[in-house]
Specification:
Elements (H helix, E strand, L loop, with lengths): L3 E3 L6 E4 L2 E3 L5 E7 L12 H14 L3 E10 L2 E11 L6 E10 L4 E9 L6 H10 L1 H4 L31 H12 L4 E2 L1 H4 L36
Antiparallel strand pairs: 1-9, 2-3, 3-4, 4-8, 5-6, 6-7, 7-8
Length: 225
């Protein structure tokens, strides 16, 4: 059960509870997380949010392609695209998400697709066209090194029209199409907004134990004294 009450799934077939797939291999799923959202910053602190999301993706071995503000079901949200390596074979998967955070929970629409067959064609063609020096770049959201998969120009939206069947193109287009169609339960919409991550609470330390003291010896008195 999720607070997502509707979204446009034209062309998709359900293959499991809250999960659908289309003929191109794009999968859509809906989720509800009844915990404080794990976003690294409030939505209005976009630079800090983007930097934190980039570090999270890199820490998992992937790379954040983009993170942009969005409105989903009339509520503020963040739309992000992440690339991750495919375990056990060459290529990448691309995972997009629309996250609608509230103070103590969140609703998420996830869109994903993976490379099949010959992989890396988009990247190699664009690298050959722009040159190696212009291909790789520092991550746009983070100062300095971030790790994970490298940031490069082949992930930019301007190339999508040249590669209409590429999983990144398909995920990005599906996110853009679905986002305006999402509707949310009124009870979820009425919940307090997300104000930012909960700071870690100090672990309570037990009070120091006073070592037991030996009983005091009374004055010794001789009998009859």
């Amino acid at each position: 059960m999720t607070p997502i009450t509707g979204l446009d799934l034209t062309g998709f077939t359900e293959y499991g509870p809250g999960a659908w797939e289309d003929d191109s291999g794009v999968a859509v799923s809906v989720h509800f997380f009844p915990v404080v959202p794990d976003l690294p910053a409030p939505l209005h602190e976009l630079a800090r949010l983007r930097a934190g999301l980039a570090q999270v993706a890199a820490g998992a071995g992937g790379g954040l392609v983009e993170a942009v503000p969005a409105t989903v079901g009339g509520l503020p949200a963040v739309c992000q695209l992440v690339k991750v390596p495919l375990g056990g074979r060459s290529g990448q998967a691309f995972v997009g998400s629309l996250t609608v955070p509230r103070a103590a929970c969140s609703a998420v629409v996830k869109v994903q697709a993976a490379e099949e067959g010959t992989t890396g064609l988009r990247e190699s063609m664009i690298m050959a066209e722009v040159g190696l020096d212009a291909y790789f770049r520092a991550h746009p959201y983070v100062d300095g090194e971030v790790g994970g998969l490298p940031s490069h120009v082949a992930d930019d939206e301007e190339w999508d029209a040249r590669f209409p069947g590429h999983p990144l193109t398909l995920v990005r287009a599906t996110l853009r199409r679905i986002a305006p169609t999402v509707t949310l339960d009124d009870g979820f919409r009425a919940l307090p907004p997300f104000g930012g991550p909960v700071p870690p609470q100090p672990v309570p330390q037990p009070a120091p134990q006073t070592p037991p003291q030996p009983p005091k010896r009374g004055w010794f008195r001789r009998k009859g004294a």
